[in-house]
Amino acid sequence: MDPLRQKSLRLRKLLLACVFAAIVISIVFAALQRSDWNVPEEAKQRKNPLPPSEAALQAAAATYRDKCAQCHGATGKGDGPEGKRHDPLPASFTDAPRMNAASDGELFYKMSKGRRPMPSFRTKLTEEQRWQLVLLIRSFARKSPAPETPSAPETQPAPGKQPAPGSHPVATSPR
Question: What distance in Å separates the CA atoms of residue 146 and residue 113, rounded to the nearest whole number?
Protein backbone atom coordinates (compact mmCIF):
# COMPACT_ATOMS: atom_id res chain seq x y z
CA MET A 1 0.00 0.00 0.00
CA ASP A 2 1.38 3.37 -0.88
CA PRO A 3 2.14 5.90 1.87
CA LEU A 4 -0.65 8.28 0.79
CA ARG A 5 -3.29 5.56 1.13
CA GLN A 6 -1.91 4.52 4.52
CA LYS A 7 -2.09 8.09 5.77
CA SER A 8 -5.66 8.43 4.47
CA LEU A 9 -6.68 5.17 6.17
CA ARG A 10 -5.14 6.28 9.50
CA LEU A 11 -6.92 9.61 9.23
CA ARG A 12 -10.28 7.90 8.62
CA LYS A 13 -9.71 5.58 11.58
CA LEU A 14 -8.86 8.54 13.79
CA LEU A 15 -11.93 10.42 12.62
CA LEU A 16 -14.15 7.39 13.28
CA ALA A 17 -12.65 7.01 16.78
CA CYS A 18 -13.33 10.70 17.52
CA VAL A 19 -16.94 10.41 16.37
CA PHE A 20 -17.39 7.28 18.49
CA ALA A 21 -15.88 9.03 21.54
CA ALA A 22 -18.18 12.04 21.04
CA ILE A 23 -21.22 9.74 20.94
CA VAL A 24 -20.16 7.94 24.13
CA ILE A 25 -19.51 11.23 25.93
CA SER A 26 -22.92 12.55 24.83
CA ILE A 27 -24.69 9.45 26.14
CA VAL A 28 -22.88 9.60 29.48
CA PHE A 29 -23.62 13.33 29.82
CA ALA A 30 -27.32 12.77 29.06
CA ALA A 31 -27.50 9.95 31.61
CA LEU A 32 -25.91 12.11 34.30
CA GLN A 33 -28.35 14.94 33.62
CA ARG A 34 -31.29 12.64 34.43
CA SER A 35 -29.92 11.49 37.77
CA ASP A 36 -31.34 12.73 41.04
CA TRP A 37 -30.23 16.06 42.41
CA ASN A 38 -26.97 15.86 44.29
CA VAL A 39 -27.57 18.45 47.00
CA PRO A 40 -24.65 18.88 49.41
CA GLU A 41 -25.48 18.15 53.05
CA GLU A 42 -24.37 21.67 53.99
CA ALA A 43 -26.99 23.13 51.60
CA LYS A 44 -29.71 20.84 52.98
CA GLN A 45 -29.00 22.15 56.50
CA ARG A 46 -29.50 25.82 55.59
CA LYS A 47 -32.44 27.46 57.32
CA ASN A 48 -34.74 29.99 55.69
CA PRO A 49 -33.87 33.33 57.33
CA LEU A 50 -37.27 34.78 56.39
CA PRO A 51 -40.28 34.15 58.59
CA PRO A 52 -43.49 33.26 56.75
CA SER A 53 -45.48 36.46 56.19
CA GLU A 54 -48.13 37.75 53.84
CA ALA A 55 -45.71 40.41 52.56
CA ALA A 56 -43.06 37.78 51.68
CA LEU A 57 -45.66 35.61 49.93
CA GLN A 58 -46.98 38.55 47.90
CA ALA A 59 -43.47 39.56 46.84
CA ALA A 60 -42.69 35.96 45.90
CA ALA A 61 -45.95 35.61 43.95
CA ALA A 62 -44.86 38.34 41.53
CA THR A 63 -41.44 36.72 41.08
CA TYR A 64 -43.05 33.30 40.65
CA ARG A 65 -45.42 34.55 37.94
CA ASP A 66 -42.48 36.10 36.08
CA LYS A 67 -39.83 33.38 36.46
CA CYS A 68 -41.49 30.08 37.42
CA ALA A 69 -45.15 29.80 36.40
CA GLN A 70 -44.46 29.26 32.70
CA CYS A 71 -42.99 25.84 33.61
CA HIS A 72 -44.31 25.00 37.09
CA GLY A 73 -47.83 26.33 36.44
CA ALA A 74 -49.87 29.06 38.10
CA THR A 75 -50.72 26.84 41.08
CA GLY A 76 -47.40 24.96 41.28
CA LYS A 77 -48.63 21.66 39.83
CA GLY A 78 -45.80 21.45 37.27
CA ASP A 79 -48.31 21.94 34.47
CA GLY A 80 -47.20 25.24 32.96
CA PRO A 81 -47.47 25.66 29.17
CA GLU A 82 -43.71 25.82 28.69
CA GLY A 83 -42.96 22.96 31.07
CA LYS A 84 -44.90 20.41 29.04
CA ARG A 85 -42.14 20.54 26.43
CA HIS A 86 -39.37 19.69 28.89
CA ASP A 87 -37.86 16.38 29.86
CA PRO A 88 -37.84 15.89 32.76
CA LEU A 89 -41.15 17.61 33.45
CA PRO A 90 -41.14 20.39 36.06
CA ALA A 91 -41.70 19.36 39.68
CA SER A 92 -45.12 19.72 41.27
CA PHE A 93 -45.03 21.80 44.43
CA THR A 94 -48.50 20.55 45.45
CA ASP A 95 -47.23 17.10 46.46
CA ALA A 96 -47.20 17.53 50.26
CA PRO A 97 -45.19 14.37 51.11
CA ARG A 98 -42.54 15.28 48.55
CA MET A 99 -42.38 18.89 49.73
CA ASN A 100 -42.17 17.80 53.38
CA ALA A 101 -39.24 15.54 52.52
CA ALA A 102 -37.23 18.48 51.14
CA SER A 103 -35.62 20.99 53.48
CA ASP A 104 -35.82 24.72 52.82
CA GLY A 105 -32.08 24.68 52.13
CA GLU A 106 -32.52 21.94 49.54
CA LEU A 107 -35.24 23.90 47.71
CA PHE A 108 -33.10 27.05 47.86
CA TYR A 109 -30.09 25.15 46.50
CA LYS A 110 -32.04 23.66 43.59
CA MET A 111 -33.45 26.98 42.43
CA SER A 112 -30.08 28.66 42.89
CA LYS A 113 -28.08 26.00 41.07
CA GLY A 114 -30.59 24.91 38.43
CA ARG A 115 -30.31 21.81 36.29
CA ARG A 116 -31.32 21.35 32.69
CA PRO A 117 -33.89 22.26 31.63
CA MET A 118 -34.31 24.53 34.68
CA PRO A 119 -31.98 27.54 34.66
CA SER A 120 -29.93 28.71 37.60
CA PHE A 121 -31.46 31.67 39.43
CA ARG A 122 -28.38 32.49 41.52
CA THR A 123 -27.59 35.58 39.45
CA LYS A 124 -31.14 36.27 38.18
CA LEU A 125 -32.78 36.61 41.59
CA THR A 126 -31.52 38.02 44.88
CA GLU A 127 -31.01 35.70 47.82
CA GLU A 128 -34.05 37.25 49.50
CA GLN A 129 -36.21 36.59 46.43
CA ARG A 130 -35.13 32.94 46.37
CA TRP A 131 -35.93 32.48 50.08
CA GLN A 132 -39.32 34.15 49.48
CA LEU A 133 -39.94 31.64 46.69
CA VAL A 134 -39.19 28.80 49.10
CA LEU A 135 -41.98 30.11 51.34
CA LEU A 136 -44.34 30.43 48.38
CA ILE A 137 -43.74 27.01 46.86
CA ARG A 138 -44.29 25.43 50.28
CA SER A 139 -47.67 27.19 50.42
CA PHE A 140 -48.73 25.35 47.23
CA ALA A 141 -48.57 22.03 49.10
CA ARG A 142 -50.81 23.45 51.85
CA LYS A 143 -53.38 24.65 49.27
CA SER A 144 -53.56 21.40 47.31
CA PRO A 145 -57.02 19.83 47.22
CA ALA A 146 -57.74 17.11 49.74
CA PRO A 147 -58.06 13.56 48.50
CA GLU A 148 -61.60 12.24 48.12
CA THR A 149 -63.15 11.36 51.46
CA PRO A 150 -65.50 8.49 52.23
CA SER A 151 -69.21 9.32 52.08
CA ALA A 152 -69.72 8.61 55.79
CA PRO A 153 -68.12 11.39 57.85
CA GLU A 154 -65.56 10.40 60.44
CA THR A 155 -65.54 12.11 63.79
CA GLN A 156 -61.88 11.30 64.43
CA PRO A 157 -59.14 10.28 62.05
CA ALA A 158 -58.55 6.55 61.91
CA PRO A 159 -55.27 5.33 63.42
CA GLY A 160 -52.39 6.07 61.06
CA LYS A 161 -54.39 8.63 59.02
CA GLN A 162 -53.64 12.33 58.75
CA PRO A 163 -55.97 14.83 60.44
CA ALA A 164 -58.42 16.60 58.14
CA PRO A 165 -56.93 19.08 55.67
CA GLY A 166 -56.69 22.53 57.15
CA SER A 167 -56.35 21.31 60.71
CA HIS A 168 -52.59 21.66 60.50
CA PRO A 169 -50.51 23.39 57.83
CA VAL A 170 -47.81 21.52 55.93
CA ALA A 171 -44.29 22.69 56.77
CA THR A 172 -45.24 25.97 58.43
CA SER A 173 -41.99 26.61 60.21
CA PRO A 174 -38.89 27.51 58.26
CA ARG A 175 -36.33 24.71 58.32
Answer: 32
Asked whether residue 102 is domain-assigned, the answer is: yes
Q: Please answer whether residues 122 and 43 qualify as being in contact, where contact means their C-beta atoms are separated by less than 8 angstroms.
A: no
- Amino acid (one-letter) located at 40: P
The percent of residues above 90 in pLDDT, for the chain, comes to 51
Neighbour-count burial of 111, counting CB atoms closer than 10 A to its CB (0-12 exposed, 13-18 middle, 19+ buried): buried
Query: Residue 127: enclosing H or E segment and its boundaries?
Result: helix 127-143
Residue 46 sits in a domain whose CATH number is: 1.10.760.10
The more confident residue out of 154 and 53 is 53
Give the structural domain span for 120: 41-143
- Per the structure, the count of domains in the chain is 1
The pLDDT value given to residue 102 = 93
The SS3 of residue 118 is strand
Position 52 pLDDT exceeds 70: yes
pLDDT at 71: 93
